[in-house]
Design brief:
This is YhfH family protein. InterPro entries: YhfH-like. It holds the Pfam family YhfH. The chain has 1 helix and no strands. The chain is low in regular secondary structure. It has one domain. It is elongated and about 40 Å long.
Length: about 40
């Protein structure tokens, strides 16, 4: 059975930071996997 794209993204679990485990308040399909606190641009 095919699911609507909007339903698929709506049902994804909240994204968590790969380093500290804190919930990331970004879109689930975003490529970033670290929160703003752990993400450091050198």
């Amino acid at each position: 059975m095919l699911v609507k794209v909007t339903e698929f993204f709506r049902n994804l679990p909240p994204k968590k930071c790969a380093q500290c485990g804190k919930k990331i308040d970004e879109q689930h399909e975003c490529y970033v996997n670290k929160c703003e606190d752990c993400f450091q641009v050198v």
